[in-house]
Amino acid sequence: MKTFNHLFENYEKLQEWVQGWYEGVGTEQILIQFFCEYHSYEIMQEMATFLTDALPQAHVVGVTTDCRVYDRTMQDKKIAVSCTLFDKSSVKVAAVESADMDGIDFEKSLIQKSMRAVLLYSNDKQIIKNSFLNDLRASMDDSCVVSGGLSVNESSHGNAYISYQNRVYEKGFVAISLAGKELFAQSVNQCKWQVISSPMIITKAIKNRLYEIDNMPAIDIYEKYFGRNISQKLPSVGSLLPLLVKHNGVNRVLMPFMKYDDGSLLFCNELYLNEPVYFTIAASSGMDEHIREYRALLNSTLPETVYLYSDINEMHDDKALNDRANCTAQAFFSGGAFFSDSENIYLRNYCSTAVAFSESTPIQIATTKNDTSENEYSQLLPALSHIIQVLTSEWKEKFDDESSKLVQKDKLINQNNKLMQMGEMVSMIAHQWRQPLNSLSATAINISLLSMMGELTHEEIEENTQFIQKQCQNMSDTIDTFMNFVKPAKQTKPFRLIDTVDAIMKIIGTQLVNHNIKLEVVTSNKDISLVGHEDLLEQVLLNLLTNSRDAFETLDSPFKKIAISIDMLEDTPRITFEDNAGGIPKEIRDKVFNPYFTTKGQGKGTGLGLYMSLDIMRKSFAGDLIYQPIDDGSHFELLFRTRTQ
User: Fold this and answer.
1) DSSP alpha helices (H): ranges in 227-283?
2) pLDDT at residue 253 tops 60
3) Picking from 226-230, 260-264, 477-481, which range would have the lowest pLDDT averaged per residue?
4) Among 352, 323, 300, 411, residue whose Cα is nearest residue 150
5) CA 389, CA 382: separation in Å to the nearest integer?
6) Nearby residues of 185 by Cβ (< 8 Å), 6 or more positions away
7) Which pLDDT band, with edges at 50, 70 and 90, does 375 fall under?
8) Element (H or E) spanning 16, and its range?
9) What sections of 166-273 are H helices per DSSP?
């Protein structure tokens, strides 16, 4: 194995360089890689075509970058060309447009016997699906290492390109497999970060586009924590304050590379709902450690070629590259790095990976002494990281304490509301029982009189007995409904919404009749159902009904009406509640869901009913309770997002 490097000046000198090593080459396994700091489709196409025509049997791969290392020095606005000749190994390449990624046949186009390594290149705007990487990893042996990087255009955040042979891809993917019984590959990677925020949750994301964190637009989250000046500079400052996402127990550090007017951000990886996400900064100790690992790889036992892929500036400076080494090294400044373990392939922003090759001897990584010299910056960054960590920990302790107090307060509010409703229900039961008790008393008196007059027949006894049993059963049903309300369900269960409304009507129905309030219940389908805690929905309905009943007491109207309708809004159940009890005054409408706010007289209300109803709808049914004023009344919508039966 031999590797030759050339810094492009013009095509005449490039031709001379090719002819200098190409004549007499005894292998057809040639890998040409060029790294272009000009973010131009035309320049990429011109270079790819020239190399493909000059070396028709070679595999020619090109990538755009922001800077390039040649001869162990940083180069800007240059094109570096690297040629590797394999004597005992074979090279295969698969290249596709992004739209065709799901259709790649790895076994046919890429996988080889004795495959030792795979190099991956893609665009920073390419959606790298985790399923795609998992399928690729599954087709390899556990010992096969993966390395590679994303083409990048950090300077203008414009297009970045990759190429294979004479074709240039604006959105594509190139995979290079290297195989051989005598080929040895060894890789190292590093991605160490210091978390500087409490956990947040991804609440809206589609593929690799992040819309909301903690129900706030992604850009607004940056503004909230770092100020408007930082948020306005996105995505360029995203490399300084990237996000750490935890997916299936694996940390991924991601930088945004595009922002949209709706406040969303675009990343190179797929994102998933309800995943925890954190703000991070680079841990300098981790970077120093990887520099030592990379230097050890450079100076390991007989490596013949080393490739470095990194979007960390420290990995490209003299500290990492200018040591004396036993091999030819190439460093590519990428927008992210690919690497693997025995089970998965990972793509992470702001990290680095390196791979070393040899066709003669297994690679033994050399031991290196720690560089104990520290400049002012290297001492300052760990100190700042420590301060941030301590402040975050202290804030979290205070937050947890306040959260505990709020939980206890919510429990107390809920208990107060429950006690208030229980008092209401006892009063309702008294109303509900008054008529059947009077009927039972009248029946008993009637039986006694008939018996005294000698006119009590068998038929009279049978008829009155059945009447008494019916009244007692109705009273028992009322008690059962009350007990179900008082004793909350421990487990969720499926229930029909119409049955829930009917159960509440057994309790409050008599009161409504006594107040001359007409109740109308309609449903588009009696089988509309939910899975959840039915007793909590009963609380909400009871709050709305008692509020309307109380509002009618102050209203002199001959026609009092409450209408409840049950239907489906798209794919979710909805209950609509309306009355003509005068409505809520405009000046207090924005306060009706506040705790302890009431318009009732002293001793007649706690101000918790609507507050608790909204809390129940959002927390227990993932839904909402919406108020809208209507002519001479109020309109409430109960929206549900929990699953239906």
Assistant:
1) 228-232
2) yes
3) 477-481
4) 352
5) 10
6) 116, 117, 144, 145, 178, 355, 356, 357, 363
7) very low
8) helix 11-22
9) 218-226, 228-232
Average pLDDT, the chain: 78
Over range 360-380, report the average pLDDT: 53
- The enclosing H or E element of 482 equals helix 458-486
- More confident position, 298 or 422: 422
> Does residue 235 have a cis bond before it (omega within 30 degrees)?
yes
Q: How many helices (H) and strands (E) does the chain have?
A: 13, 34
Residue 594: alpha-carbon gap to chain centroid: 31
Q: What percent of the chain has pLDDT over 70?
A: 72
541, 501 Cβ separation under 8 angstroms: yes
- The torsion angle over the Cα atoms of residues 103, 109, 112 and 116, rounded to 10 degrees, is -70
Copy the structure tokens of residue 379: 């001492």
**CA-based angle 115:116:121, to the nearest 5?**
95
- Sign of the Cα pseudo-torsion (468, 472, 474, 475, in order): positive
- Judged against a pLDDT cut of 70, whether residue 281 lies above it is answered with yes
**Whether 117 contacts 178, CB under 8 Å:** yes
Cβ atoms within 10 Å, residue 15: 12
Degrees (nearest 5) of the Cα angle 113, 118, 124? 150
- E strand or H helix at 497, and its extent? helix 497-514
How far apart (Å, rounded) are the C-alpha atoms in residues 133 and 343?
11
Write out 536-556 in H/E/C secondary structure: HHHHHHHHHHHHHHHHHHCCC
| Range from 11-20, 269-278, 323-332, 591-600 carrying the lowest mean pLDDT | 323-332
Q: Look-up: residue for tokens 């009749």?
A: 513
Could you tell me which residues come within 8 angstroms of residue 162 by beta carbon, excluding any fewer than 6 positions away?
61, 62, 63, 64, 121, 122, 123, 151, 168, 169, 172, 173, 174
CA 491 to each of CA 84, 97, 268, 488, 531: distance values in angstroms, whole numbers, following the listed order: 65, 50, 41, 9, 10
Hey, what are 444's tokens? Answer: 């008993």
**Residue-wise pLDDT tens digits, 518-576:** 999 999 999 999 988 888 898 889 889 988 988 888 888 889 999 999 999 878 899 99
- In the block, tokens 């420290």 appear at 314
Which range has highest mean pLDDT (49-63, 195-209, 272-286)?
49-63
CA distance 416 to 419: 5
Judge whether 180 and 87 are in contact, CB under 8 Å.
Answer: no
Q: Which residues lie below 8 Å from residue 335, measured CB to CB, with a gap of 6+? A: 124, 149, 150, 151, 152, 154, 160, 255, 257, 268, 311, 349
pLDDT per position as a tens digit, 493-515: 899 999 999 988 887 888 888 88
Amino acid found at 485: F
Distance of alpha carbon 584 from its chain centroid, rounded? 39
Q: What is the mean pLDDT of residues 246-251?
A: 70
Q: Does residue 324 surpass a pLDDT of 60?
A: no
345 exposure class (CB count in 10 Å sphere: 0-12, 13-18, 19+): buried
Instruction: Indicate the Cα dihedral angle 372, 375, 376, 382, nearest 10°.
Output: -50
